[in-house]
Amino acid sequence: MTTDAPGDEPRPVQDPDPADPADAPTAPAEDREPAEDREPAGDREPDPERTDPVGSAGTAAAGRSPSSGALAPSNRSGPSIPPPPRRTGVFVDAEELRPHVGGLLRVILGGYEVDAFGNYTFTHDGARIFVTVAATPIGPQIGVFSVTNLEVSLTPELAEFLLQRNHTMAFGAFSYDAANRAVWLRHTLLGSTIDLPELQAAVAAVSSTAAGVDETIQERFGGRTFQQAPDEVQRQMEPPEPDTSSPAGVTGYL
Prior knowledge:
This protein is of the alpha+beta class. The protein has helices at residues 57-61, 94-109, 156-168, 196-221, 231-236; strands spanning 2-3, 11-12, 113-114, 120-124, 127-134, 141-150, 173-177, 182-190, 224-225. The chain is globular.
């Protein structure tokens, strides 16, 4: 086989014998990278543009679903903890937060009632508890309330007793409802960061404190405990609305 190039004499060119490896064509020495200049595979920098394919070992080791990339759900019995609601800016919307709070209470208690005012209510540790969700200028807040006593007059002695108790309590504070002549215990949570342990701790603290002090108030200051009132009276009690008149909007937060 021959090739002709302009201005050159024809030169014979032999086809390499495929059976003879010595005759196989090789790249010129100057075109080959010296062995000492080649970077070992283990020392190469990772390619930032490269991503592991879905279903790779790294994805499986992280406990993620190969199809969605989300953490695989755990197998649990009973109600599961609801995911946090969609956030709008820094704080969540109160109406968006409400079903989330209901889901958390369902996990804690197994169930609840909704009163005529749209609040969650239930009996826990011998105390009637109300849980409210409301909007405030600083974001939605969750109120955990309990009425301890009814038909009791506000006297200097009762006011001193309640203030002294407030001074030493870790959760919540007592207040007086003049319209119903009732003593309330309340604890307020910021709704934008609520989670299951925080709500559970607030419910337990308010219920145990209310159940432990109502008989003491009755014995010292008269009236009757909230649990002694008829069911229809209990259901007519409405927790106070947050005070939003303050420019900072923090008056109702405790």
